[in-house]
Amino acid sequence: AFLVDAAYGLVVFWTNPKRAINQYYALLTIFFGAWLFSQWNLLHVSSSQQADFWIRPVLATTLFIPVAFNAIRLSMKYREYEWGRIFKRSTPLLCIAILACVWCFLPNSIIAVNLPENDVPGGVPEPEFGPGYFFFELYHILFLVYLVHAFVRDTRNARGIWRTELQYLMFGCGVCLAVAVLLGMIIPEIIGDSRTAPLAPVAVILMNIIIAYGIATQRIMGVATVLRRATAYGLLTAYLVLVYQSTAWIVSELVSIWTIPIASLPELLAALVVAFSLAPVHGRLQKFADVLFVRARTIDLGLIVQQASAVTQSISTLDDLLHDFTRIVLSSLGTNHVRILLLQEGRFVQAIPEQEGDDVLTLDANDPLVRVLALHSEPLVMETLRRRRLSPLLEAAVQRMHSLNEVVAIGIRAQNKLSGIMLLGERLSGRIYTAQEEDALSLLSAELGVALDNAKLFTEASNSRLYNDILLENLGNGMIATNMDLGITACNREAHVILRLPDEFVAGASLDQIPPELAEIIRNTLRERKLREELDVPVRMGEKEIIHLRVTSSVFKSHTGDVLGAMVVFQDVTTMKHLQVQNRRSDRLASMGTLSAGMAHEIKNPLVTIKTFTQLLPERYEDEEFRYTFQDLVGKEVKRIDRIVNQLLTFSRPSKPRFEPIDMTRVIADSLSLVGQEMRRNNVEVSTSFQDESCDVLGDADLLSQAFVNFFLNAQESMQEGGTLSVQTLEVDGAHAAVQSNGNSALPSWNASSSLLMLIKIADTGCGIEEDDLLRVFDPFFTTKKSGTGLGLSVAHGIITEQGGMIDVVSEPGRGTEFLIHFPVPKEGVTNE
User: Fold this and answer.
1) Which of these, 151, 290, 598, 671, has the minimum number of CB atoms within 10 Å of its CB?
2) CB under 8 Å to 431, separation ≥6 — which residues?
3) Which residues contact 521 (CB under 8 A, 6 or more apart)?
4) Cis peptide before 66 (omega within 30 of 0)
């Protein structure tokens, strides 16, 4: 008993030497060890003097054992206290014990010692005490009453691991006292001698086993569970012994009567009876033990796992899974709350219970609790963690759990990676999470980890399907999809409206049930397996009605690249076509009004001059200077009228361009040479930046040269004090053109069939254009100059757009103007046809 006591003291102290309860348990084992050592020597004395010497330390050590028990109780109650603070609380009782200890070593405390007779088996020396022994006994009685009262009171008020540790301490003391009384008092009284008394120290071994388990083990079971199991196995052992002995006795009697020559037959048959009755009896005795401890609520691990499997294996959304799983944990473990955090964008965000704003718990990946759970798969139970030596990281994790008011934390893993965290609060009953319940949590978290993956996939699939259905049905364009066998697989509501399809036309219908124009596009798309964009397709809806559709078709493929089918997206542009016709008609009428007003103004001025001179001619005909002036002026005014009429004819009836491959860089250079003299005369510096390689486009070089000259002259006229004219050419893609268009112009139709564009930038450092005038710069007869017809930019705009180009203008008053001109670069094989 002494050796076992010392071993348990060292082991418990070593598990966590900084914990006060471990320290005081080691102190308790020292006192018990001293008592056992003194008892052993007392049992082997040969004289009264030796007996007197060893009885005194036996008495003295019994004084300090209750003090050590009380210190352990205080260290359980005040868990945050260190060894010194608890020692101060034990000082009054310790002083009383020291005074009593002094009495034990006084000469008159023991008057005499009577040694047992040699023929008395197991006898022990019996002392005769002197004055003061009454107070010695009173000390033990009062201390025992105080400890019992304190333990009962603390147990009622305790919760969690404190209550469990107190229960183990009381349980160990109770077992020790019961065994010691049984061996040292009851059995000797029954058998009439004290031969079992020397076996009483066995009670200390049992006490150490129970208390050490309650203090040092990291995965502790509840006391009720231990009692229930001990009772079940004790009853089972008694039953097996009884069955074996009864069977063996009956068989031996029968063997002696029948004179069967098999000596081992009774033992053999008894062993068989025991073996066959073991399994059914064990189950019944286990249930009987459960009935005895009916108030000790236990969990059915198999039932919990079965319920969790039913939830996790069902196909449900993530929200439903989490709610059902939380319900199982709350009902089976009796915890006051459960929080589940899921990994989202590198952080763990609270998903259950649902919260908003600052109430949502979020843990970063560097949080100590997250780091520990990522490294360890077992649950982190805060109370049991405090029972062992912790690394700095584990200590930080415990502090984090304490700040969150959580008792248990367990990682939820999917594909060997931490995908979630489950946090549990205290149990409503105040009991701890036992080892069995930790195992249950491990199994539940593993089930949840697998289910989370399935639920996420199901949720994503459901959301994707719902999103696609909503998107498809609310798409502003019609959409029809087919498989490789030309069977309709999808047709949205807008397609029904545009094509006037019957209600029974749904997925699975034949391609022949849609207009042949669309059916032919789908067939060609599947045959050619390429994208067909922005096709203007007239579709006959009856004998007289024709609708115009803008159609885009493409094939869709699987993840392996195999073509699965084709799809057409179309928009009814019939109304748009009618509006375009009306707009063109309105534009022509508006242009006619503008042209008429401009013509009247521009032609009237020279006519007034001619009329005036004509009226004065008869009177001043003899004046030679007047006639010379009249001749010169009339000639100029007639030329002016002729120029205006020619510009009007060019604007209203431009020459039909002759498309042929031309070098745009060469056309621009020739146009600059035509205005070079005018630029130099007005102090305008010309800067050019042409791409290295020549860029061929389809166009009319003469008309384009006329347009560029208009741009150059317009730029020169905006720089009255001189400046710089910059001309640049480069190849860009269609996206660049869209950015440069600045929202003032739409991309032309050729952009869909040309991957490259030629961009021409014509920039000046002139006075610029006001923001309100930018939208009118290409209008006929609009000008901000004192002289000019306002037709130059209109004519140039007409030439550019007629040849498939696009013009945009960017300007800021005082900082110059920049014209951006885009031309499509034809693909190989494209000709002027």
Assistant:
1) 290
2) 160, 163, 164, 222, 297
3) 532, 535, 537, 551, 553, 568
4) no
Q: Single out the residue of 729, 727, 801 nearest to residue 764, CA to CA.
A: 727
Judge contact between 709 and 674, C-beta under 8 A: yes
Tens digits of residue pLDDT in 370-403:
999 988 888 888 877 777 778 889 889 888 998 8
Verify cis geometry, omega within 30 degrees of 0, for the bond prior to 661.
Answer: no
Residue among 377, 330, 387 nearest 353 (CA): 330
Beta bridge partners of 421: 341, 411
Burial of 417 (0-12, 13-18, 19+ CB in 10 A): exposed
Which of the four pLDDT bands, split at 50, 70 and 90, describes residue 831?
Answer: very low
Contact assessment for residue 103 and residue 59, using Cβ atoms and an 8 Å cutoff = no
* Nearest Cα to Cα of residue 408 among 160, 76, 80: 160
Looking up tokens 């791409």, which residue turns up? 691
- DSSP SS3 for 128: strand
Residues 6+ apart with CB under 8 A from 416: none
Q: What does the alpha-carbon distance between residue 420 and residue 410 come to, in Å, rounded to a whole number?
A: 9
In whole angstroms, what is the distance from residue 476 CA to residue 698 CA?
A: 37
Distance between CA atoms of residues 686 and 728, nearest Å: 11
568 beta partners: 480, 553
**CB distance 57 to 17 below 8 Å:** no
Write the DSSP symbol of residue 570.
Answer: E
pTM over 0.90: no
